[in-house]
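Pipeline run #58 for the internal structure catalog. This entry was flagged by the ingest filter as a single-chain record with no existing model, so it goes straight to prediction. Upstream metadata was stripped on purpose; only the residue string is passed forward. Reviewer on rotation: M.T. Logging verbosity set to normal.
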Amino acid sequence: LLKIRTDLDDRKGTADALCPLAEIHRRRSEYEKAMPVYSELLKIWTDLNDREGRADALWGLAEVHRRRSEYEKAIPRYSEVLKICTELNDREGRAAASWGLAEVHRLQREYDKAIPLYYKALGIFTELDDRKGKAVALLGLVDMNHDPGDDGENLYQQLAEILEQSGTSADPNPDDEWLVRLRIRVSNWPGRRLGSSH
């Protein structure tokens, strides 16, 4: 299909065929394979003046850079995604880009920059009723919060509620890394009382 679309010079069709390929490589941690596909997507969507497609390709590239600890390359990509999604009024994209930027700043121990971005993402994900998005934003905040006081307790309480809503399947989908992280964090909750679900 990809070869046929390329032969016919159907640029949008080529991009549509490349998108799942890039995602598969990224999810399998095949970053060397994902990078050129996302780069090709970025070129096609830019040539077609498709800003939503451009934002998607930039987000994929930013994710690959973050996973490869190439933070100086990830930040401008996430920032551009945030700008485009804000202009397009794409709330889900804004939340994802804010979360990505927060993750990069957290990983560089720039907590003063990460915290407001996590809270921005958390607010949008909450409005969208996106349980996974809310969980990953909370996990980022918990990862930075070493204070067992009220703030830390509140973050853990919210994580526990999401875990309860997510069910108790023994074998989560491999794509649900966030759910595995969530279970680990809640089970290691310093303030958790045995036998208490809240």
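catalog note: The two ends are 51 Å apart (CA to CA).
catalog note: Confidence is low (pLDDT under 50) at residues 193-198.
status: ready for reviewer M.T.
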